[in-house]
Amino acid sequence: MSSEKTMIVVEKLCKSFAGVPVLSNLDASFNKGEIVSIIGPSGAGKSTFLRCLNLLETPDSGRILIDGVDSQEMDVRKLRMKMGMVFQQFNLFPHLSALENITLAPRSLLKLSKAEADELGSELLEKVGLAGKEWAFPKELSGGQQQRVAIARALAMKPEIILFDEPTSALDPTMVNEVLGVIRSLAYEDGMTMAIVTHEMRFARDVSDQVFYMDQGVVYESGAPEVIFESPVRPRTRAFIRRVDTFSFDIFEDNFDFYRFDAKIDDFAMKHLLDHERRETLVDLCENLFDNFFFMFTKRISFTIGVTEEKDVELRFAYKGEEVNPLTADINSDEPVDKFTAVRLLTKSVILNTSSRATYTRQGDDYVLELLIPREQKRRA
User: Fold this and answer.
1) CA nearest to 323, candidates 367, 264, 291
2) Is 110 exposed, middle or buried (0-12, 13-18, 19+ CB in 10 A)?
3) Cα–Cα distances in Å, from 134 out to 87, 116, 141?
4) Distance CA 16, CA 19 (A)
C-alpha cells in the first residue's frame, strides 16, 4: 500500500493547553500511500496530534513537513484541501441533504459546476454504500450512514492525505463495522496516505502498514502491526496491548444469559483472530464449568478472559465461598463415589482435556481457578 516517498515528517512537535503539555517533542513520519493507525490510552495526545497536522490546533513548537513543505508556511485552505479529516462527530449540516453536504466544498473551493459536483457526490455516495440516499437529510440517516456521508464529504476534495479521528467512537456498536468496512476499502483501493486514530485493535492490525503507539505525548513505539500487537519491545506498549487483550465481567446464577455470554465470546474471538475450533472450546468449557460446577456452590463468579503474547487464551474464575478444588478430585477405591465427588471428577477431566495449565489457589478472600487454553488445541482421545 505504501511507497518509499515520505509524505509527512514531524519533528519535535510540542503542544500544551493551559500550561499542561499534551505533545512533548513528538517525532514521526508517514510514507506516501501508507496507512498508519495510532493507538494508545486516553489522554495520550492522539487527537491533538491529528489536529496539529492540519493546523486545527497551532503547535507551540516543532516542525511539520507536508510533502517537503513546512505546514506553517502553507496557506491553511490549501493545506486542508490536501489533507482531509473525518471527525468523531459527523458535523453534517442538518439543513442540507447528504448530496448537498458533500458538494458544498467542491463547488466553493474547487469551483466545480453544480452538475460536476452532483455527479462527483453521487459517485462518492455509491462508493460508501449509500447510493439512492442523495436527498436524505442527516436526521433521516443512522449514525453509521451519517459518518459514511462525512467520509464521502472528505473524499470530495480529492485529498492526498486523510485523517480519521476515532471515526467509530460516537457510533452504536452495531454500526461500527459498516464504517470500518468503508475505511478498509479505501485503504486497499485508493492509495491515499491515511492516519487513523482508533480503539479498534483488530481493524488496526488488519489494515495498517505501520502502527504508532502513543503515550505521554510522544510516539512511544512504532512498527509493523505484527510487531506492535504480537511482540512489542517497550514496557508500556506491552502493558497496553495486554490490557486491550483482556476483559472481565461478573456472572450471576440467577440471571445468567448463555446467549449474551456466547456473543461476548464471539466478539472476543473475532477481535483476537481465534479460529472457530477455539471459540467452540471456550464456550463449551465455560458453560460446562458454570452450569455443572460453579453454580452448585456459588451464585456469583468474576470471570476474566485474556490472550497472551503467544496467543494462548487465559481464563480466570474467581468466587467467594467454600474451597472446592476440582483438580484434587480422585477416586478412593475403598469408598463409594458420591454425586459431588463425581462432579469434581468430571470437571477435572474436562479441564485436563482442554487446558495445558490449570491452577486453583486462594487469593485474598477469593478462590481462583486459572486455566490456559493453548494456541495448538489438545486433541480429544
Assistant:
1) 367
2) middle
3) 21, 15, 11
4) 6
Q: Which of 14, 33, 12 is nearest to 22 (CA)?
A: 14
Report d(CA 368, CA 81) in Å as an integer. 57
Report yes or no: 15 and 22 within 8 Å, Cβ to Cβ: yes
Smallest CA-to-CA distance from 148 within 106, 185, 182 is with: 182
Tell me the one-letter amino acid at 260: R
Give the whole-number percent of the chain exceeding pLDDT 90: 55
The Cα-based distances of 87 to 11, 90, 167, 251, 353 in angstroms read: 24, 6, 6, 37, 49
Which residue type occupies 185? S
CA dihedral sign of residues 173, 137, 88, 159: positive
Amino acid occupying residue 95? H
Nearest to 55, CA basis, from 66, 43, 68: 66
pLDDT at residue 209 tops 90 = yes
Cell numbers standing for residue 36:
498508519
Question: From the centroid of its chain, how far is CA 162?
Answer: 19
Q: Specify the 3-state DSSP secondary structure of 68.
A: coil
Angle between helices 114-127 and 98-109 (to 10 degrees): 130
Amino acid in position 350: V
Q: Which residue has the higher pLDDT, 247 or 373?
A: 373
Nearest to 317 by CA among 281, 266, 366, 271: 366
Which residue in the block uniquely carries the three cell numbers 453544480? 114
Which amino acid is located at 310 in the chain? E
Mean confidence (pLDDT) of the chain: 88
C-alpha cell at position 257: 444469559
